[in-house]
């Protein structure tokens, strides 16, 4: 079948050799197209290619939600919901007993991580499964999942990443000792209320220290609100004083909070959230952890519809490896490279 390059999906297979307008061979028959190969075709200004028939047809205006393989939903959704419910039970036991059980934590988290095999699909899953209900418990499950993936992205092996996922899962366990009226308050906290909320890091450290031998699990709960510039709490630590796992959790904790839908606000535009994280990577958050996270998130925007400040509507066809927020955009038959044409700016990304 012959398709326009802009309509290609990752996983499509070329059915014949592809050449550019100058006769230069670009890609061979049988090549399975991924982000890099599609980008090459665009760079060579190739408009159409021939590919093998697809099992199913997908739309050119792909979104984060629609790029996810839907066959995962029936499997993962109940596991995710079970993890959220199980964390609620752990939360209650931590309050009543002052500790949590390692076997129960593993039984809750491991099935979820084992069933989410592709990091991009994890992002999609979070957006699909987010609701305004049970924010406290959903947030902990999401931070556990994303801590696992970011740990892999920054170079930890899978066993280490699973443990870091556990640290993320437990990072807010100290909230069990904070009044629900404060945790769920729909308006701005008073200074006294915020001072009480900040104690959840100390409570979490105490609960996890009683429950686990791995010291970084407790340290991560204690330090995940510390900031590399010293502006965090509870101790105002600076970069070298903060544990690397706590730096990972700090990034995904903020991300999950920003994209989550709560009863008093809607989830935010993902592109804007990543922009804000990028700015924080120069001040409050560890630059390597944050920018690695963004680097792996940005390819999700390929195929998404955007509105520019000029009012023009286009589609992102390629992202840049370092200038994360300056993609190549197609408007009709015209391409706009935002790394070159700096007078253009993205106003909105349509989710």
From TrEMBL:
CDD domains: HDc. Gene3D superfamilies: Hypothetical protein af1432. InterPro entries: HD/PDEase_dom (IPR003607), HD_GYP_dom (IPR037522). Residues 114-309 form the HD-GYP domain. SMART domains: HDc. It holds the Pfam family HD_5. PROSITE patterns: HD_GYP (PS51832). This is HD-GYP domain-containing protein (C-di-GMP phosphodiesterase class II). It comes from Paenibacillus harenae. The lineage of its organism: Bacteria, Bacillati, Bacillota, Bacilli, Bacillales.
């Amino acid at each position: 079948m012959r398709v326009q390059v802009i309509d290609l999906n990752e996983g499509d297979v070329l059915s014949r050799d592809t050449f550019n307008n100058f006769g230069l061979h670009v890609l061979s028959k049988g090549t399975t197209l991924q982000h890099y190969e599609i980008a090459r075709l665009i760079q060579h200004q190739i408009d159409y290619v021939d590919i093998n028939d697809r099992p199913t047809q997908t739309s050119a205006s792909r979104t984060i939600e629609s790029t996810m393989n839907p066959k995962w939903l029936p499997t993962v959704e109940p596991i995710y919901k079970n993890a959220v419910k199980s964390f609620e039970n752990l939360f209650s036991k931590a309050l009543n007993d002052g500790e949590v059980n390692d076997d129960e934590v593993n039984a809750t988290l491991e099935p979820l991580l084992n069933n989410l095999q592709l990091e991009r699909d994890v992002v999609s899953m979070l957006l699909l499964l987010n609701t305004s209900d049970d924010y406290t418990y959903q947030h902990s499950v999401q931070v556990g999942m994303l801590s696992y993936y970011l740990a892999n992205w920054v170079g930890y092996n899978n066993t280490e990443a699973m443990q870091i996922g556990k640290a993320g899962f437990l990072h807010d366990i100290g909230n069990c000792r904070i009044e629900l009226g404060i945790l769920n308050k729909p308006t701005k906290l008073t200074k006294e209320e915020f001072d009480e909320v900040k104690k959840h890091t100390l409570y979490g450290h105490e609960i996890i220290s009683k429950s686990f031998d791995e010291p970084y699990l407790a340290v991560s709960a204690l330090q995940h609100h510390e900031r590399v510039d010293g502006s965090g709490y509870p101790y105002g630590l600076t970069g070298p004083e903060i544990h690397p796992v706590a730096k990972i959790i700090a990034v995904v904790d903020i991300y999950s909070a920003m994209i989550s839908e709560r009863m008093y606000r809607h989830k935010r535009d993902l592109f804007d959230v990543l922009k804000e994280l990028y700015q924080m990577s120069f001040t409050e958050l560890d630059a390597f952890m944050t920018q690695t996270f963004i680097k792996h998130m940005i390819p999700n925007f390929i195929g998404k519809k955007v509105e520019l400040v000029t009012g023009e509507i286009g589609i992102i066809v390629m992202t840049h490896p370092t200038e994360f927020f300056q993609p190549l955009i197609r408007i009709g038959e015209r391409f706009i490279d935002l790394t070159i044409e700096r007078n253009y700016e993205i106003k909105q990304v349509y989710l």
